[in-house]
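re: ur question from earlier - yeah i can do the single chain one, its not a big deal. heres the input i used so u can compare w yours
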Amino acid sequence: MPRSLIARLPNLRFIGITGHEHRTLDLAAATERGITVACALSSAGGPSATVELAWGLIISLSRHIPQAAAAMKQGGWQRHCGNSLYGKTLGLIGLGRLGRAMVPIARAFGMAVVAWSPNLRPEDAAAAGAVWAGRDELLARSDFVSLHLVLSERSRHTLGAAELALMKPTAYLVNTARAGLVDSAALLQVLTTRRIAGAALDVFDQEPLADGHPLRSLDNVILTPHLGYTVEETLRSFYQGTVANLLAFMDAQNSPLPAARA
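and the output i got, formated as tokens:
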């Protein structure tokens, strides 16, 4: 909802959004027009759902669960040999609300945790239960790299060709944050050439992902259709909150103006 679109909607009076932020809405333009913007937050699911998905993808990568499940339906038995998470290293790029929630789960699996973000200090990483490492060191050490940064012009392409080349050939990349954090062309190259073991991706530069996109044909990639927050608990809160906000707005529009004071 940029300023140019808002300017073309002279009858617009109310915008309902969900979640904590909406970076595609020009809030200043809406405010100048006197448009009410109401946010519906989720009281359940939300961040925990994204963290749960990230771990589901990590486990699926390590044990080749999608491939094994598909093979079972085609007949036969064991065709894949996976790896244990115990003793492996999880590298967290971003240690905010979601990144911090990844740490105790990794510890429960017996994994070491290293973390980096542009403003992360070693003492902050330690307080969250992780060990601070420089970005290059993190990429070189980690068996699983999981992204949890907010996308901005500063963080765009945090992982490019040079950074991806630092990862172990046996390492996996997991992205449940934003596609723009990774140079998609460079990622496709390392996956196609098997320079890294594989990836699990829940976010893409263009969504829905094109039917003929080359990522769909790679057997070392798990793809999910932006499922991060998409759980029943979150959507119920979003929908109910949006309806409540709209009803409140409509009630306010129909309320009589207060009497003028003498």
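Strands lie at 14-18, 36-40, 89-93, 112-116, 131-132, 144-147, 172-175, 198-201, 221-223. not sure if urs matches, ping me
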